[in-house]
Specification:
By secondary structure, the chain is α/β, with parallel strands linked by helices. The chain contains 16 helices and eleven strands. It folds into three domains: 144 residues, NAD(P)-binding Rossmann-like Domain (Rossmann fold, 3-Layer(aba) Sandwich); 124 residues, no CATH class; 76 residues, Orthogonal Bundle (Rna Polymerase Sigma Factor, Chain: A). It is globular and about 55 Å long. The chain starts with a strand and ends with a helix. The structure holds nicotinamide-adenine-dinucleotide (NAD) and magnesium ion (MG).
C-alpha cells in the first residue's frame, strides 16, 4: 500500500527537495496535496509530475492561472487562505510543513489532528507556539518529526529512554556568511551578501536569519520544545564545515553526533522514511575527503540575536512570539533595503522592551499578539528608516 503524503510549501527550498525525494520514490507514495504561495508554474509542474490530487495556491488571484496550467490533468486546483487551511485538515499518512514564517502556524495546527506523522521544517510556529503544538500532538497521538537539520540530527541520537542521562544538546551552526567579518563590515552588509550562505542553499528569510544568527536563536527555542530541554541544557557551537549537524552529550561522557553532507535531502529522507531508512537522491558525505572539522565559540556581541533568543526562551511567556514576529518584519524590510543589517536586531530589541500583556495560551492569542507586534514593528521601521534615508 502506498503511503499518502502532502507537502505544504512545496515550491520552496525544503519543498523542492521533498518533491525530488517523492519523485525518486514514486512507487512508495501517493501525493494528495501540494501547496504554494504564488508560484503557479512550479506548483502545477510538481502536481502534474506527481499526479497530486489537489494543488492549492494561497494567493487567491492566481486561481485562474492555476486552473489553466492544470487543465487536462487530474489535479484539482484550489486557491486562498481558507482552502489552504481546509486542505490542512485533510487526513494523510505523512505531511511535510515547509511554509516559511508564522504563516505556517494555522496550517500546522490544523494538520496535527489529521496527520499520522507531521514532519516540521517550518520552525517559526514551533518558536511562537511550541508548547501548544506539542501538547496538541500528544493529545491526538500524532508523531512529530523534526526536519530542521540540527533537530533531525538530535532526533537521531537522542535516547528517549535515557533522557535523564542527557546533560545537554549541542546545536552546531555554520556561523553564516559574516562569521569572519568585523562588526563594521557587517553594518554595511547588503541583502545579496546576506543571502549568499557558504554551505547551504535556502530560502531568503532563513538565509538572512543565518547571517544574523537569529536562525540559531530560533533553533534553540525550537529544540527546547521538541526535546523538552531547558535553555541551560542547550549549547550552540560554531562548526563552519556543516558536517556534524548537532550532538547529544550524555552523563557517561559520550557525545553522539549525526554527520552528513550539508544537504536537506538527508533530514527530509530521514523523516519521510522513518522509522525505516530511505535512499537519498541528494548528496552523500564522503568522509575520505574531509581533512578538517573545526569548532569555535559563538560571538554573542557581534551576533546579538543569539543572546536575545536565549533571553526570550528564559523569559518564557510571550517573549518568543514577540521575538519571532519582530524578526520576520525586520528581515522583510532588510531584504527590501529599507533598513541596514544591524537595525534588524534593533527592531527585535525594541519589540521585546515593550510591555505586551497578551497571554499566549490559545492559537488566537498567539496570532493576535503576533499581529500587534508586526504592526508596531512596521511603525518603528518607518521611524528609523526615515532616519537612515536622511543619513544616507
Ligand atoms: P522558501 O522561502 O524557499 O519557501 C517557502 C514556501 O512557503 C514556498 O513554497 C512558498 O510558496 C510558501 N509560502 C510562503 N509564504 C506563504 C504564505 N503566506 N502562505 C502559504 N504559503 C506560503 O523557504 P525554505 O527555505 O524552504 O524554508 C521553509 C521553512 O523551513 C522555514 O521555516 C525555514 O526556517 C525552514 N527550514 C529551511 C531549511 C532550508 O534549507 N531551506 C532548513 C531548515 C529549516
Ligand atoms: Mg537548521
Amino acid at each position: 500500500m502506498k503511503k499518502t503524503v502532502s507537502v505544504f510549501g512545496s515550491t520552496g527550498s525544503v519543498g523542492r527537495s521533498t518533491v525530488a525525494l517523492l519523485t525518486h520514490h514514486k512507487e512508495r507514495y501517493k501525493v494528495e496535496i501540494l501547496t504554494a504561495n504564488q508560484n503557479v508554474d512550479l506548483l502545477a509542474a510538481h502536481s502534474i509530475a506527481l499526479k497530486a490530487k489537489y494543488a492549492v495556491i494561497a494567493d487567491e488571484t492566481k486561481l485562474d492561472s492555476l486552473r489553466d496550467a492544470l487543465s487536462g490533468h487530474e489535479t484539482e486546483a484550489m486557491a486562498g487562505r481558507q482552502a489552504l487551511l481546509d486542505m490542512a485538515s485533510h487526513s494523510v499518512d505523512w505531511v511535510m510543513m515547509a511554509i516559511v514564517g508564522l504563516a505556517g502556524l494555522e496550517p500546522l495546527f490544523q494538520a496535527i489532528p489529521n496527520g499520522n506523522v507531521v514532519a516540521i521544517a517550518n520552525k517559526e510556529p514551533l518558536v511562537s507556539a511550541g508548547a501548544l503544538l506539542m501538547s496538541r500532538a500528544q493529545r491526538y497521538g500524532t508523531t512529530i518529526l523534526p526536519v530542521d537539520s540540527e533537530h533531525n540530527a538530535i532526533f537521531q541520537v537522542f535516547e528517549k529512554e535515557n533522557k535523564n542521562a542527557i546533560e545537554k544538546i549541542i546545536l552546531t551552526a555554520s556561523g553564516g556568511p559574516f562569521r569572519t567579518w568585523s562588526a563594521e563590515q557587517i553594518a554595511c552588509a547588503t541583502p545579496k551578501q546576506a543571502v549568499a550562505h557558504p554551505n547551504w542553499s535556502m530560502g531568503a528569510k532563513i538565509s538572512v536569519d543565518s547571517a544574523s544568527m537569529m536562525n540559531k536563536g530560533l533553533e534553540v527555542i525550537e529544540a527546547h520544545h521538541l526535546f523538552g530541554m531547558s535553555a541551560d541544557q542547550i549549547d550552540v557551537i560554531i562548526h563552519p564545515q556543516s558536517i556534524i549537524h548537532s550532538m547529544v552529550q550524555y552523563c557517561d561522557g559520550s557525545v553522539l553526533a549525526q554527520m552528513g553532507a550539508p544537504d536537506m535531502s538527508t533530514p527530509i529522507a530521514n523523516a519521510l522514511g522513518y522509522p525505516d531508512r530511505l535512499e537519498t537522491c541528494g548528496q552523500k558525505l564522503d568522509i575520505q575527503t574531509l581533512s578538517n572539522l573545526s569548532f569555535e565559540r559563538p560571538d554573542f556581541e557581534k551576533f546579538p540575536a543569539l543572546r536575545l533568543s536565549y533571553d526570550a526562551l528564559r523569559a518564557q511567556g510571550n517573549a518568543p512570539v514577540i521575538l519571532n514576529a519582530a524578526n520576520e518584519v525586520a528581515v522583510e524590510s532588510f531584504l527590501m533595503s529599507q533598513i541596514p543589517f544591524p537595525a534588524m536586531m534593533e527592531c527585535v530589541e525594541e519589540a521585546l522592551s515593550k510591555n505586551y500583556t497578551h497571554c499566549t495560551s490559545t492559537l488566537e492569542d498567539i496570532v493576535d499578539l503576533d499581529q500587534s507586534v508586526r504592526t508596531d514593528t512596521e511603525v518603528f521601521i518607518q521611524k528609523i528608516s526615515s532616519h537612515f534615508k536622511k543619513a544616507g
